[in-house]
Amino acid sequence: MSEVLRLTEHRPQRGVPLTTAQAALLTMSKLVTVAPEPGGGWCVTADREMVGAIRLSSAQTSIDLTITPKLPVRRLFFLLGHARKGVDWHWHTTSVQEQQGLVPAIAHTFARMCERALSLGVLQGYSTIEESATVLRGRLRTTDQIRHRFGRPLPAEIRYDDHTVDIPENRLLLAATRKLLRERDLAPTTRALLRRILVRLDGVSPLVYGQSLPAWRPNRLNSRLQSPLRLAELVLRSGSYEFKESPGLRVDGLVLRMWQVFEEFVTRALTDALRPLGGRCLTQDRRFHLDHAKSAELRPDFVYEPPGSHSPSGVVDVKYKQVRGTRGNMGDLYQMLAYCTRLGLPEGHLVYAAGPGTATTRHHLHGEPGITIHQHTLNLDAEPEALLAQVDTIAAELRAPA
């Protein structure tokens, strides 16, 4: 059995009894910082803005690491759902508040959504099959027949469309189900629901490890599966955290990058708030450089261009960290100053996940013309409607001046 270490995001845990090999394993992962304490034991801090459940193992030892987000799980689910194109994750039926951790809550939600979606039957579709057969079916692949059979009529190299359950949507659901079943802290009811999903998806081929996830397109036929499919993609992509610099380390689990969750939520909410005005909302805009040689790329998190204009009227950068009071974070101020200078804007906006003081602080910088940087702090503990109202206030300041 592996040792289990439970941490909270950005909160040090002191006096942790670890062996030297386990401490080295945690250090190799770079998910936490580990330091020996004078009185014995170790001080372990999860400071990489990642949360989830991960099993770390090497030839010498192994350890199960669980990092709990600072946010309540239910609030984190709202951020995730809104960021993922407003996916409805059915809070009133999933009993998220009864789950003890993030990964069990994700598994429970996914299992309930799949149960609801698959109760109407497993989705089927047409899949193109290429194979060798003794009976002609569909179309003959003439080139392959000549290349591999040298003029012999049988077996025939054929291609046909088969109505089957083995389609990309079901492969994604199967892969996410199998991955979640490997988690150790699942409730018995959740584990039973996931096993029922495996039975329903009988006949679906598993994904090949290391290959890209199969592509699917939202349409009328798969509308009932779209919410669980979005969550399945989240589960599968969250397990792709790789440690290329530590070849002796093996990692398996579910990891969420909190900075990415927060950034996706803010940019999606800003896009929704500005959509009625028209224009363009651009994320991670790579068109701008700080120098003429284009060697210093600028990549603001969010840029808004009003209708009929190809020039931005607003720029936003999102920071999943705490703002340092009214003085601001100097590195962030310099970064936004570069954005405003290059884009020719008199104002820029920094959005933080936490911080003391008022919701908005303004920094009026020297120069001619002067540049004003607005420093916004979102209250992530607020109810969803209040949180979206805060984002709407920021969006109103991005509009082109009258």
Neighbour order of strands in the largest sheet? 11-12-13-14-16-15
Task: Give the termini separation.
Answer: 66 Å
DSSP strand (E) fraction?
Answer: 15-25%
Q: Measured on Cα atoms, how large is the radius of gyration?
A: 26 Å
Global mean pLDDT: 83
Helix content: 25-40%
Shape: globular
Number of strands: 16
Q: Which structural class is indicated by helix and strand composition?
A: alpha+beta
- Name the quaternary structure: single chain
Low-pLDDT stretches are: 90-98, 241-245
Count of helix runs = 11
Tell me about the largest β-sheet: 6 strands, mixed
One letter per element, helices H and strands E, the order comes to EEHEEEEHHHEEHEHHHEHEEEHEEEH
Q: Can you put this structure into words, describing what you see?
A:
The protein is 34% helix and 25% strand. The chain has helices spanning 20-29, 73-83, 91-94, 102-118, 142-149, 168-181, 188-200, 226-238, 258-274, 330-343, 384-398; strands at 3-8, 13-16, 33-36, 42-45, 50-57, 62-68, 125-133, 139-140, 156-164, 250-257, 280-283, 302-305, 314-322, 347-354, 360-365, 371-377. The chain has 402 residues and is of the alpha+beta class. The N and C termini lie far apart (66 Å). The longest helix has 17 residues, at 102-118. The strands form 4 sheets. The chain has a 6-stranded mixed β-sheet with strand order 11-12-13-14-16-15, with helices on both faces. A 4-stranded mixed β-sheet has the order 1-6-5-10. A 3-stranded antiparallel β-sheet has the order 2-4-3, covered by helices on one side.
